[in-house]
Design a protein that fits this description.
By secondary structure, the chain is of the alpha+beta class. It folds into three domains: 157 residues, Beta-Lactamase (2-Layer Sandwich), CATH 3.30.450.60; 122 residues, Immunoglobulin-like; 120 residues, Mu homology domain, subdomain B (Immunoglobulin-like). The protein contains eight helices and 21 strands. The strands form four sheets. The chain has a nine-stranded mixed beta sheet with strand order 9-11-7-6-21-19-14-17-16, with no helix packed on it. Strands 2-1-5-4-3 form a five-stranded antiparallel beta sheet. A four-stranded antiparallel beta sheet has the order 12-13-18-15, with no helix packed on it. Strand 3 and strand 4 form a beta hairpin. The longest helix has 19 residues. It is globular and about 75 Å long.
Length: 443
């Protein structure tokens, strides 16, 4: 009982690549593709359950289809038997990360241009029994060559052996599975990105009902040889539910709250965590919204001549007045987007935004979006206008606000010191922080 295979669908729901499915009948993957496309057509906004039940042609042999979306593509994993769905989703995420390492941007065009590489990766990462096998990118590069223009030209010419680089050793010759042997760089440097995401719900009184911060430490390692690193972090006392890359020595973290590891070569996620505030108070939301939404009948409103023609076929009208204030005192909020679902009966919007902000209305999703490219510290923005509706207007009772903050972390997590043993050079260390927010603000 394991993963039966992997299917990649294009934006139109057609299969681009699929694994062999050697132990299943030919119609087995088609059943899952049809079940997924049927569920997608029935959904109103394109959101469906991540695990779909699929009926089988045989009695008592049903299966499920686990799927994820990456860009415009859909990755499907048919599963039979008693298999934890998290096990399947973890494999799909790992395989997507491997494709990103090899191909960069994953799209229908890049997959079709590199069929041979993708199928080789499928054979190496998922064995015939449906169990994940080799999933470390550094180990895969020894047996599956990354695509390059020179390699493609020589392959077409029939001299592909000349395109193979001179290896430092046989595949899997390194005693450390996530790091190759003989890595050399002219400039030895390592970078750490502390990225955090704030998820919060704010009630209509402006008080935070729930707050949660999820973070991760991403690294880009360009160090020669086999360095052994010791990373000291400040502010780790409030980190919970920590998960680590296999290179991290768990016992050292449990005893001293220090990260001791031999890093992989290139980009990787060192650790992930959940931050909880040590005090009873919730995490402070870096912005404030004051919303005044009124729903009125159109017959009682005084309308201008420009609005009369648009309102002739409408039966109700609503007014919206939103003020957004930044609570930050030293940094700015970037890429602020406030969205409000106006209801199925909404037909048009007429708004005025201040301070170089902009707004848009999607007639398909019936969503009003307010865009603020940059909100300086302690700044204020306003959006006001009217909404036209064919029936009584029923907007959502909450705004969804997303934003970015550069050089800021909600957990105040910092890198204090980096020590290295095993090599004689002194590495350069770079650290930066960034945070994103996703807040549901009720009115």
């Amino acid at each position: 009982m394991a993963i039966d295979g992997l299917i990649i669908l294009d934006p139109f729901g057609h299969p681009i690549i699929q694994s062999g499915f050697r132990s299943s009948p030919p119609a087995y993957p088609l059943l899952h593709i049809d079940a997924f496309n049927a569920a997608l057509e029935k959904s109103a906004r394109g959101s469906i359950d991540p695990v779909l039940f699929v009926h089988s042609l045989e009695y008592d042999a049903s299966s499920v289809c686990c799927h994820v979306k990456h860009g415009d593509l859909r990755f499907l994993c048919p599963v039979t038997g008693d298999v934890d769905p998290l096990y399947v989703f973890a494999f799909m995420k790992t395989f997507i990360d491997i494709l990103s390492e090899y191909l960069g941007n994953i799209s229908s065009e890049t997959l079709k241009e590199n069929f041979d590489v993708v199928y080789q990766l499928l054979e190496e990462t998922l064995d015939a029994g449906g169990h994940p096998s080799t999933t470390f990118p550094n180990a895969l590069r020894d047996i599956v060559l990354p695509p390059s223009m020179l390699h493609k030209m020589l392959s077409v010419a029939g001299v592909a052996a000349l395109a193979a680089p001179i290896a430092h050793g046989q595949p899997f010759s390194s005693p450390i599975p996530w790091r190759k042997m003989g890595v050399r760089y002219n400039n030895n440097e390592i970078y750490f990105d502390i990225a955090e995401t704030l998820k919060a719900t704010v009630n209509k009184n402006g008080a935070a009902s729930t707050t949660a911060v999820w973070g991760r430490v991403d690294s880009n390692c360009k160090l020669s040889g086999t360095p052994d690193l010791l990373l000291n972090l400040a502010g780790v006392q409030n980190l919970n539910d920590c998960s680590f890359h296999p290179c991290v020595r768990i016992q050292r973290w449990t005893r001293d709250k220090q990260l001791s590891f031999v890093p992989p070569d290139g980009r990787f996620t060192l650790m992930e965590y959940r931050y909880t505030s040590g005090s009873v108070q919730q995490i402070v939301i870096p912005l404030q919204i004051k919303a005044n939404v009124k729903l009125e009948e159109s017959s009682s409103m005084a309308l201008s001549s420009t609005d009369f023609q648009a309102l002739r076929s409408c039966s109700s009208l609503g007014t919206i007045d939103i003020t957004l204030v930044s609570r930050l005192t030293t940094r700015s909020l970037d890429n602020v987007v406030a969205q409000l679902y106006l209801g199925e009966s909404a037909t048009g919007v007429n708004m005025v935004a201040t301070n170089n902000s902009s707004w848009s209305f999607d007639s398909k999703t019936k969503t009003l979006s307010w865009h603020i490219k940059s909100a300086p510290a302690s700044s204020s923005f306003n959006l006001r206008g009217t909404v036209l509706s064919q029936k009584y207007l029923r907007p959502s009772r909450a705004f969804r606000v997303t934003f970015d903050i550069n050089q800021h972390n909600f957990s105040a997590l910092k890198v204090e010191q980096l020590k290295m043993t095993g090599e004689l050079y002194k590495p350069f260390k770079g650290v930066r922080g960034r945070s994103v927010g996703d807040v549901e603000w009720r009115w």
